[in-house]
Design a protein that fits this description.
The protein is mainly α. 57% of the residues lie in helices and 0% in strands. The chain has a domain of 99 residues. Helix 3 runs parallel beside helix 5. The chain is elongated, with a radius of gyration of 32 Å.
């Protein structure tokens, strides 16, 4: 017994699982659709070349100033890293952190390594986390870079504790 309201599975149900015939029916496939990240290109008439226009300069004076300030702080953090290299070498030469215990020597090594890379990590993290160009973010970037340069300065070298 078959129910008249219930339709039998048609051959069209199987056709929905195949790609063939899409062009004939005028359906677009995912390969036909334009990609959002693809640059828009225009077809040039035969014999002419398409010349891409250079992008407009979007950097304003505030962006240039922010870049210069960030580059200045990059120099400060680089100098701090060099300072920490000098501190670590002086401490190792004085053998102040070697106790003979393997665990404490390992922890001391990790501490010296973190002292060396902390300035660079702070700078990169601040630049990455304050990428937005709004005024508030620009001020936050300068503030965080200034805070980091003060906190991560090689204070033992600056205050002369290693003499």
């Amino acid at each position: 017994m078959s129910d008249p309201d219930r339709a039998e599975p048609a051959e069209d149900d199987e056709a929905a699982l195949r790609w063939e015939g899409d062009d004939e029916l005028g359906r677009m496939t995912s390969l036909d659709e334009p990609r959002l990240d693809a640059p828009a290109t225009e077809a040039a008439p035969p014999g002419e070349q398409v010349v891409a226009e250079p992008p407009a300069a979007a950097a304003g004076p505030r962006d240039v100033l922010l870049t210069l300030v960030s580059a200045g702080f990059a120099g400060v953090f680089l100098a701090e890293m060099v300072g920490w290299i000098l501190v670590v070498q002086a401490v190792q030469a004085g053998d102040a952190l070697t106790t003979g215990s393997g665990v404490l020597d390992f922890i001391g090594g990790i501490t010296r390594f973190l002292a060396l890379v902390a300035g660079g990590l702070w700078f990169v993290a601040t630049i990455q986390l304050t990428r937005d160009t709004r005024r508030r973010r620009r001020l936050a970037r300068i503030g965080w870079l200034a805070l980091g340069s003060g906190l991560l300065a090689p204070w033992p070298l600056l205050l002369g504790f290693l003499r």
